[in-house]
Amino acid sequence: MKRYIAPLLIGLIGAGILISLGVWQVQRLAWKEAILAEIDQRILAVPVPVPVEPDPETDQYLPVEVTGTIGPRELHFLVSTRKLGPGFRIITALETEQGRRLLLDHGFVPTDAKQAERRSRYVTAIGNLHWPQERDRFTPENDPEKNYWYAREVPLLAEALETEPVLVVARDMTPADPTVTPLPVDSSGIPNDHLGYAVTWFGLALCWLGMTALQLWRISRRNP
């Protein structure tokens, strides 16, 4: 019996560690789902005026309503969506009646509509404040000369359009522009991979137990 003790202990201890990691990921999944539900609830709350000095931390996703005149200059951000395919986000300056200049993300236009004429107009936009974190080591550098942008870095956009570093991502615009499809803020872009991690750890635990059982079977087949 002594020859079974070491592999059995290794098998049980290893499986226990892997199962505990899987349980931890299940707990993290519940925690993350609660956070996402809270974010969704915040996104769809009653809109308020844009704060005088919004904070990127405390005011992220804040629902707002703003009225003003859209500037003629556009910034075009390359984007691809599952439903709409490849195209561009349209971002302009919006000047309010109080003289504030804010960034306004109108939404999506298909590639062939990138250069379509969109006149300046007076609008009311309902949306959310957003400071996206879209740049990583794989993101190409922006090309302002050709008006090809790849990451919505609010300070750079504000410098380019001479606005406050405040981005409103439109959910609804009045009057609406039929050539533009809003791409509102939601929680779908926030990673939530804990279920996949949990399945991986539990799967590894099952494999570990299977290898342990195989090792014990081989030991039993040896001559005493």
What would the keywords be for this entry?
25% strand, 2 domains, OB fold (Dihydrolipoamide Acetyltransferase, E2P), 3 helices, alpha+beta, 224 residues
Summarize the structure in words:
- The protein has two domains: 2-39 and 191-221; 62-184, OB fold (Dihydrolipoamide Acetyltransferase, E2P).
- The chain has a five-stranded mixed β-barrel with strand order 1-2-3-5-4.
- It has helices at 2-43, 154-161, 194-221, and strands at residues 63-81, 85-96, 101-110, 122-129, 167-174.
- 35% of the residues lie in helices and 25% in strands.
- α1 (2-43) packs antiparallel against α3 (194-221).
- The protein has 224 residues and is an alpha+beta fold.
- The protein is built from three helices and five strands, in the order αββββαβα.
- The protein is elongated, with a radius of gyration of 26 Å.
- It holds the Pfam family SURF1.
- One of its GO terms (cellular component) is plasma membrane.
Present the secondary structure layout:
Blueprint: H1 2-43, E1 63-81, E2 85-96, E3 101-110, E4 122-129, H2 154-161, E5 167-174, H3 194-221
Parallel strand pairs: 3-5
Antiparallel strand pairs: 1-2, 1-4, 2-3, 4-5
Helix pairs in contact: 1-3
Helix/strand structural class: alpha+beta
Mean residue pLDDT: 88
Strand order of the largest sheet: 1-2-3-5-4
Number of domains: 2
The coarse overall form would be: elongated
In total, how many beta strands?
Answer: 5
Distance between the termini: 10 Å
Which H/E pattern describes the elements?
Answer: HEEEEHEH
Our estimate of the beta-strand percent is 25-35%
Fill in the CATH topology of the largest domain: OB fold (Dihydrolipoamide Acetyltransferase, E2P)
CATH class of the largest domain: Mainly Beta
Pfam family, one: SURF1
Keywords: Cell membrane, Membrane, Transmembrane, Transmembrane helix
Membrane topology: Multi-pass membrane protein
GO cellular component, one term: plasma membrane
